[in-house]
Amino acid sequence: MPRNVVALVEFSGLRDWQEIRSRLTQIAGLNTLEVNSMSARAAAVTFDFAGSLDSLQAALGQNGFALDERNGTLVLRSQ
């Protein structure tokens, strides 16, 4: 059963965000990426992932991302 994930995606600018968003949509098991809000350096997103949090972190890591928890919020950034 897919889990609903809410995360903050950090980026350096619009071009970086566009690249990150494109790369995220290519990750197997990650579906329905929605942008809830956006600022100049971060976007709050929601997506479904078919698997555990550990498998999500592994899939993101294989695609050049890091997923960490900061003050109770999942934070996603490009490595």
Describe what this molecule looks like in 3D.
The chain has helices at 14-25, 53-62; strands at 3-10, 30-38, 42-49, 65-70, 73-78. The chain is α+β, with helices and mostly antiparallel strands and 79 residues long. 28% of the residues lie in helices and 47% in strands. The model has no long low-confidence stretch (mean pLDDT 94). It contains two helices and five strands. It is globular and about 35 Å long. A hairpin with a 3-residue loop joins strand 2 and strand 3 (42-49). It has one domain (3-66): 2-Layer Sandwich (Alpha-Beta Plaits).
CATH class: Alpha Beta
The helix-and-strand class reads alpha+beta
Number of domain modules: 1
How many alpha or pi helices?
Answer: 2
Features:
single chain; alpha+beta; Alpha-Beta Plaits; 79 residues
In brief:
The chain is α+β, with helices and mostly antiparallel strands.
SSE topology:
Blueprint: E1 3-10, H1 14-25, E2 30-38, E3 42-49, H2 53-62, E4 65-70, E5 73-78
Parallel strand pairs: 1-5
Antiparallel strand pairs: 1-3, 2-3, 4-5
